[in-house]
Amino acid sequence: MMISRYAYTGQLLFTAIKLDLLLEVLTLANQYGFNALQNSIADYLKSILDTKNLCTVFNISQLFSLRDLAEYCLVYADRYADEILKEPTFLLLPVHAVKQLIKRDTFCAPEVNIFETIREWGEAHKDTAGVMHQLLPEIRLPLISQKDLLSIVRPSGLISSDVLLDTIDFKSKSKSTEFIHRGFQSPDINIATSQLGAVVISGETAPGQGLNLLSAESSSNENIPRTQIGDPEGIVVQLGNPYLINKIILILYERDNRNMAYSIEASIDKVDWAKVIDHSKYMCRRRQVLLFKPRAVRYIRVLGHANTAQSRYFHLSHLEAMYSTEKFQHDSDTTLQIPTCNVATKTYDAQVVDGVSRIRDALINGQTSGYDWDNGYTCHQLGNGSIVVQLNQPYLISSMRILLWDLDDRFYSYYIEVSNDGVNYSMIVDRRRYRCRSWQLLQFDPVPILFIRITGTHNSSNEVLQGVV
Prior knowledge:
By secondary structure, the chain is α+β, with helices and mostly antiparallel strands.
């Protein structure tokens, strides 16, 4: 009746139709190829989705290969996993749908609750042979307490005694950072905010200041927390829930030009910690955008290792944490980001710390044209000093481009050194025996870089090395 009404009028009022009847209409729309109607119903189902109807809607999305609706259901289920496990309709799901839900790192519910629901599901489907073996491997036994392993999992008979003993042995010998935890996921949203329950639970302040690390205004250096250099307690932020994150943004002390070395550790239980960022040997400044392999985190600890201000304190103005959907490259050994764009720019908080120019930071302003005999370049006297650029944070870099001043036919010779602290340098490019001009495309083995020092050794026209970008 309703499908024929749509065939004649092209209209159907979904709000006047009960869910079970609407799903019948969706079945007919799929059967007769009414794609526009099928997509409209799928969009409407998103708008009325709740914990009570999710399993029904998810099942139908799987049945008709409605991928967008299915993904929407999965993301919704992640947010309300524990409630959905309690719904009777969960027990009606087919095995492939159940597996798709519980295998997700973001299906965030207590593992013992997931196990108990899977046990109930198995009892409801006991006439279907060989289905439980598809689901039991998705249960993360190390996340279940030893008490529950013995009092709940063992009596069920679903897990062999050998597997249980191996799990208990593994838990006793391992740190919690070695387990694959579950966590909530809020893509590209800062979850380290007081609105989402985050609090600073460790870190001291100067007299009259409060812990204001998580507010939007804290980057102004007002009310900023601090920790003593070398203090193992550091500054600790407790998130409102366990979250899956892969990105942390820090704003370091900005009241002066000090540089600071630090590291970041993450924990799910505040007992065992995993180092996700190690900048303990790099003197960093201002805004730090830090990317790493996704992991479930409840606690974030920032440790201060050194600064250039002769102060015994490490100050932190602001912290954000999130799951980033941007694609990035990261080196797990050094914990350094591998950039895919030019990071020696003002946009990335780089600065020229040595070199002469009529326009401040001309070397890193990105302008590759409009320079002349007097403006638009940075230089240094041959035999006296160098041009030095400091990046805001260390990167693992394997290439550079340099534009040497080229408004006549002059050529240069030079070499490039890099450093982690601005004191100890190592050479990565040697062009002292070459006649170089205009654009220089330089490639070398990947190396951690925070400071870049360019030293000219020859100019065929005068005694100055001139770099445009």
